[in-house]
Write a structure and sequence with these properties.
Distance between the termini: 24 Å
Largest sheet: 2 strands, antiparallel
Order of helices and strands: HHHHHHHEHHEHHHHHHHHHH
Radius of gyration: 24 Å
Mean pLDDT: 85
Strand content: under 5%
Number of helices: 19
CATH class of the domain at 57-335: Mainly Alpha
CATH architecture of the domain at 57-335: Orthogonal Bundle
Number of strands: 2
Structural class: mainly alpha
């Protein structure tokens, strides 16, 4: 037996450039999806006459709404890649909004931004203590943090905002006094030039100009910071030894421990970073979106961030696409109302028809038939109505969330040890 094991050649080491090939294929797939989406939206805009679909203002609003969702999703990605499920993102965002509003009105919005991140880190460390050190169920701990954050911020708001200088400045138990704005900027030359091209309403060209114009007009510094954090997170988690060790804790912590990785340390670091990113998402809402802390202003964006992370298959690129989709649907219902959302019904018909064709090609006749039936129903709805009811318009972001998760569920692969309780030495 010993000789047999000794003579068996070791498995071939994976080629160093295999990961690069996979990354190249993923990038190519993303570019194809983006190109197809641009063509579809441009065609829907021309057919329906709804120029708001790709306008500069629409994209700019979508970007500002996507940033907190994207940061919350990135927070979830850091935590879950280390094997810790973070349902408490909503609570950490709430802590971030309060910290940013509380310190921001007393000093400066920059210190408020840092305080929002710090409050989020505290929430993350609390979650890490409960789940990593004491082995509490991750879902239970996350729900408890959400409830604790709501109660704590309500109590602190009544303590700090209802009397004295805060009350004189406009504070009350539901909100902080106004906070000074963080700087915004336009990219010189590009913003005005793209706006001019957009106004011609040319097919695809004006659509691209409007979309690009939204990315270079009235940008907040926190938006640029969020973009940098996405790039930095991808590089750290997929291109450095630190990221490899952290992801190994989420895939197989026992094997990681056998190779000398301090699993506890990496889990703590990941969940603390997760809390800080969620706190930054909350600070964005308090300092950029509304310039004040408001009770309940997160509006479930922590949960939508989790949905964006799942849609993105626990990777930054897909997560960014999911956050953009949710932000865009939210901006549609806030800015344009029922007529523009009605135009999207036509886009939904095309997507359902394409999905039905794909399912039928794959011999999934039952799923394909259901897609065709739903698509036909949506087409009838589009043809016999001129506007979507206001109640449905308000639910658009949540409907999109459910649709996206249901369509992407079959290709998902979460980290293997995500949510599992780990104890040092349990593999011995």
């Amino acid at each position: 037996m010993t000789a047999t094991m000794t003579d068996t050649p070791p498995p071939a080491a994976p080629k160093a450039h295999s990961a690069d090939r996979r990354s190249g294929r993923s990038l190519g797939q993303i570019l194809m999806i983006v190109a197809g989406a641009l063509l579809l939206i441009a065609a829907v805009r021309v057919i329906s006459g709804s120029d708001q679909l790709t306008s500069e203002g629409q994209v700019s609003a979508a970007l500002s709404l996507a940033v907190p969702i994207g940061l919350a999703g990135l927070a979830g990605l850091w935590s879950e890649r280390s094997g810790v499920v973070n349902i408490g993102l909503e609570g950490m965002m709430i802590l971030g909004t309060f910290g940013a509003g509380w310190i921001g009105w007393q000093s400066s919005p920059w210190l408020g931004l840092l305080c929002g991140v710090g409050f989020g880190v505290l929430g993350g460390l609390l979650h890490a203590v409960a789940t990593v050190t004491f082995g509490v169920d991750h879902i239970v701990s996350g729900v408890a943090i959400n409830l604790l954050a709501v109660g704590t911020t309500q109590y602190l708001a009544k303590l700090f905002f209802v009397s004295g200088k805060a009350a004189d400045a406009g504070g009350n138990p539901k909100q902080s006094p106004p906070v000074d704005s963080l700087p915004t900027f336009d990219v010189p030359g590009l913003s005005s030039g793209l706006h001019s091209i957009e106004n011609h309403h040319w097919f695809l060209i004006s659509d691209i100009a409007g979309i690009l114009g939204g990315f270079v007009t009235d940008l907040s510094v926190v938006t640029v910071l969020a973009f940098a954090l996405f790039v930095a997170s991808w590089w750290l988690l997929w291109r450095t030894p630190f990221g490899l060790r952290l992801r190994s804790c989420g895939e197989n912590p026992i094997a990681a421990e056998s190779l000398g990785v301090n699993v506890y340390k990496y889990k703590y670091a990941a969940v603390a970073v997760s809390g800080g990113l969620a706190g930054l998402a909350g600070a964005f809402l308090a300092l950029v979106t509304s310039h004040t802390y408001l009770e309940g202003q997160t509006g479930g964006r922590g949960y939508i961030g989790l949905a964006a992370m799942i849609f993105g298959n626990w990777r930054p690129g897909g997560l960014a696409m999911g956050a953009a989709l949710f932000g865009y649907s939210d901006a549609l219902q806030l800015r344009s109302g029922g007529q523009t959302v009605h135009a999207l019904l036509l886009l939904l018909v095309v997507l359902l028809a394409a999905m039905a064709g794909w399912k039928l090609y794959k011999k999934a006749h039952w799923q394909g038939g259901i897609s065709l039936m739903v698509g036909a129903g949506v087409l009838v709805w589009y043809l016999v109505t001129d506007e979507v009811p206001s109640d449905f318009v308000g639910a658009t972001p949540y409907v999109v969330t459910l649709l996206v998760l249901s369509l992407s569920a079959q290709r998902l692969r979460m980290p293997k040890a995500d949510g599992m309780r780990y104890r040092k030495g349990q593999g011995k």
